[in-house]
Each structure stands twice: as structure tokens, then as C-alpha cells.
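Long-time lurker, first post. I've been practising inverse folding by hand and with some scripts of my own, and I keep getting stuck on stretches where the C-alpha cells seem ambiguous. Below is the full C-alpha cell string for one chain I'm working on. Before anyone asks, I'm not after the true native sequence, just a reasonable design that respects the backbone. If someone could post their per-position residues I'd love to compare against what I wrote down in my notebook.
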């Protein structure tokens, strides 16, 4: 079965799914389409979550109907994603990449820990977005990681006063910081603004910052546009005379 790209507007090229008719209409060779999925990476994904914990959950490109691709394939991917998310500076990121090359087994273990946290974050916020109660084990995982992270911070002088500083050079500090930030989101009024994209095969999480809280898609130009086009085509098939 040929594959067609779900949306070229959100991550560049993301979330492939079966769509034979679309392939025929576009007249694109199936081999080209199959190769497009390789371009999905933490370097090309769009950061649409509005919060680091939600953007971490979105490093799995599709969650409904199929899982993946998973964009975190190595510890270096995690570091690059964290740098894009504004959690690491260039110097800290370079040092962590060097550490991962010198300690590959520890780096792999840290990556697994980050992915375990990511899946717990997705399940918790997805449940809350749908009005359901998240599971206690997932909440405990987030809470445990957050508590570990609090012990790693230090109080330091800044230009505007004092602030808690995260130890960016600690290889596993990033996981705890993400859990800590997610736990803070869970305890603020912004939690009611967490939503899950309605797009088929999507499932990306995001903070709805629209004035009236009516946002439904991870992005209007991606899932939103594709859904509207699909609805228009469905109406056209039902009422050909209205096609214009």
C-alpha cells in the first residue's frame, strides 16, 4: 500500500498514513514518499506545545492509529531537542554530547528514563485533556522525578535578584527538570488549557492560548487545514453539483 505524507505544514513532513487515492492524485512515486519519513527529526519538528513537557510528549510524531516515528533515537537527539526547547545552551549541549560519547551505556539509560517520563507525561495530560483521571503510577513517576530534581537546583544571584538555577551540565538533570516543570503545570490554572489535537493520527498536546479557548488543532496550517480540506472533499462527493 502506498503511503502519503499527512501534513507538510507542521513538521515539514510528518505522520505518514495509508492514502492510496491521494498518492494517485499527486502522482508522486511511492519510493519518494517512503523516503520522506527519514527527514523527520528533532531538528525539523515544530515546537507547538507551548510547554517543554508537552513538546517532549510530541517527540512521538503520531499517536492515534499508529505510534511513531519516535524522534528520540539517541541521547544526542534528546540534547538537541532540549537545546531547541531553550533548556540548554550551546556550551552545555556540547559538553553533554561529549559525555554521551564517553559513556554510551549511561547515556542510553538516561534516554530510556527520559522516554519513560515522556510517555507518563503524554498519558497524564492526554487523560486530563479528555476530562478523564490520569493513572496514579504516572502521576507518581512525574512526582518522583520532580522531587529528585529539586535537590539539584541551587540558589544564585541574577541581574534581577535571585533565582533557582538548574545544573545543565549534569547528564540526568534534564529529565528531572522536565518533570519539575510538568508538575508545576499540573498545579496551575493553565492546566485547563492543555488540549490534544483532534487531527486523525495526531495526538499532539498543546497549551491553548487563544482568547476564547477554542483552539482544536496542533496547528491551523497542518491538521486544521487538512481536516477542513477532507470535509470539503466529502461534501463535494455527496453533492457534486456544489463543486463549482
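-- Answer (accepted) --
I ran through it position by position. Result:
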Amino acid at each position: 500500500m502506498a503511503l502519503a505524507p499527512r501534513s507538510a505544514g507542521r513538521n515539514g513532513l510528518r505522520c505518514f498514513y495509508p492514502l492510496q487515492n491521494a498518492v494517485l492524485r499527486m502522482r508522486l512515486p511511492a519510493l519518494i514518499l517512503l523516503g520522506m519519513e527519514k527527514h523527520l527529526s528533532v531538528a525539523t519538528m515544530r515546537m507547538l506545545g507551548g510547554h517543554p513537557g508537552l513538546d517532549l510528549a510530541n517527540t512521538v510524531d503520531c499517536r492515534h492509529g499508529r505510534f511513531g516515528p519516535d524522534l528520540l533515537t539517541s541521547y544526542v537527539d534528546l540534547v538537541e531537542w532540549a537545546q531547541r526547547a531553550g533548556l540548554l545552551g550551546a556550551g552545555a549541549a556540547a559538553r553533554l554530547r561529549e559525555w554521551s560519547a564517553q559513556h554510551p551505556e549511561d547515556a542510553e539509560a538516561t534516554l530510556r528514563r527520559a522516554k519513560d517520563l515522556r510517555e507518563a507525561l503524554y498519558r497524564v495530560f492526554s487523560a486530563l485533556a479528555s476530562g478523564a483521571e490520569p493513572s496514579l503510577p504516572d502521576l507518581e513517576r512525574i512526582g518522583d522525578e520532580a522531587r529528585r530534581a529539586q535537590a539539584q537546583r541551587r540558589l544564585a544571584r541574577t541581574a534581577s535578584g535571585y533565582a533557582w538555577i538548574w545544573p545543565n551540565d549534569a547528564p540526568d538533570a534534564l529529565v528531572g527538570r522536565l518533570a519539575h516543570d510538568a508538575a508545576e503545570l499540573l498545579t496551575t490554572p493553565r492546566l485547563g488549557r492543555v488540549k490534544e489535537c483532534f487531527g486523525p493520527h495526531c495526538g499532539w498536546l498543546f497549551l491553548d492560548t487563544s482568547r476564547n479557548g477554542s483552539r482544536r488543532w496542533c496547528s491551523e496550517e497542518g491538521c486544521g487545514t487538512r481536516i477542513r480540506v477532507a470535509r470539503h472533499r466529502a461534501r463535494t462527493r455527496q453533492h457534486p453539483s456544489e463543486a463549482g
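A couple of notes from the structure itself: DSSP finds nine helices and six strands in the chain. Strands lie at 3-4, 17-18, 154-158, 161-165, 194-196, 205-207. Happy to go over any region you disagree with.
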